[in-house]
Write a structure and sequence with these properties.
Elements (H helix, E strand, L loop, with lengths): L3 E2 L1 H12 L5 E5 L3 H4 L2 H6 L4 E3 L4 H13 L3 E7 H4 L3 H9 L6 E5 L17 H6 L5 E3 L4 H10 L7 E4 L5 E2 L15 E4 L4 E5 L3 H13 L5 E5 L2 E3 L3 H11 L2 E8 L4 H11 L5 E6 L9 H7 L4 H13 L2
Helix pairs in contact: 1-8, 4-6, 9-13
């Protein structure tokens, strides 16, 4: 049976493993229990700064620490990172300071918290900032590995994690995970499904459905939205000739937007975007939200068939 875990747990585990580096410090905005930074706080209280419900202040505290040679990891809910956009822009990204921001509980998969708490625009917002690396991993293993790679990055980052458990795909495959490099989880020649976050496992289910119809779909985990793995996308276009993107995010500006931008400038190909259809969410269970927003495996499979017809 497939192990299930939440990506936020991988983030919390990584912080503990990074503690061997004395320059690593952790910042919290009153949500350490939810973002899983509390484990670091309990073990290293002298290297943890509680900023209260002050996300803007947290980012600038992080900028100050980074300018003094520290490597700050700051976290809160994804929706609350948006409060600190100006500070991320002018205090962190513009001076290119290595502050690593993690937004937990992103997307409509957050479910019963409702539309006001469902961040469907965070990836787009932070992708617009120069110098900022943007990631949305799909399981706890890849989240841990990618977080572990951040201290060597030398520039700011934004990572989105999720509250609810998803299938673990990378047990024993840690060596395949690298910032900026998409991972082919299933080879195929008829259509390429490029997914991130909670929809990677849904994309794999969609590929199974398509296989039963004689369609051989390639599935890619594009955990890094910026810098986008353009070389891989070019190979997929040459190999498959049609592309689908799948994300729990507005279809505007996220993974679908990033792939569309690359295709139009490099290797044009039919593209179908599966994502939140430019609307706000609502309150419901995680699986219910995937259906309401038409993000689940059947909708990904239908988009793949449509993309193939457009070749």
């Amino acid at each position: 049976m497939t192990r299930m875990a939440a990506t936020r747990d991988g983030y919390g585990q990584a912080l503990l493993e990074l503690a061997d580096n004395p320059k690593v410090v952790v910042l919290e905005a009153d949500l350490g229990k939810s973002t899983k930074s509390l484990h670091f706080r309990k073990a290293y209280p002298d290297r943890t700064v509680s900023c209260g419900i002050g996300e803007q202040n947290m980012l600038l505290v992080g900028a100050g620490l980074a300018s003094a040679g520290y490597i700050p990891f700051a976290s809160t809910f994804a929706i609350f990172t948006e409060r600190a956009f100006e500070q991320m822009r002018n205090g962190v990204a513009r001076p290119n300071l290595p502050v690593h921001l993690c937004g937990s509980h992103g997307g409509t998969h957050t479910g019963t918290d409702g539309s006001s708490a469902q961040s469907i625009e965070d990836l787009a917002i932070f992708r617009t900032l120069p110098n900022v690396v943007v990631m949305h991993p799909c399981d706890d293993v890849s989240t841990r590995v990618l977080t572990m790679q951040l201290p060597a990055l030398g520039q700011p980052s934004y990572m989105r994690t999720a509250r609810n458990k998803t299938p673990v795909l990378y047990d024993g495959r840690e060596d395949e995970i690298q910032i900026g490099k998409g991972i082919v989880l299933k080879e195929g020649i008829d259509v390429a499904i490029i997914a991130c976050g909670v929809l990677v496992s849904e994309a794999l289910k969609a590929a199974e459905t398509l296989s039963g119809k004689g369609v051989n779909a390639c599935v890619v985990d594009m955990h890094t939205l910026k810098p986008l793995d353009g070389a891989l996308i070019d190979r997929l276009v040459a190999q498959c000739g049609a592309v689908v993107t799948a994300e729990d995010h507005n279809i505007i500006g996220g993974l679908g937007g990033a792939v569309a931008e690359h295709l139009v400038s490099n290797q044009p190909a039919p593209l179908e975007r599966v994502g939140v259809p430019d609307r706000f969410g609502e309150s419901g269970q995680a699986d219910e939200m995937l259906e309401v927003m038409q993000l689940s495996a059947p909708h990904i499979a239908a988009a793949a068939e449509k993309a193939i017809q457009r070749k």
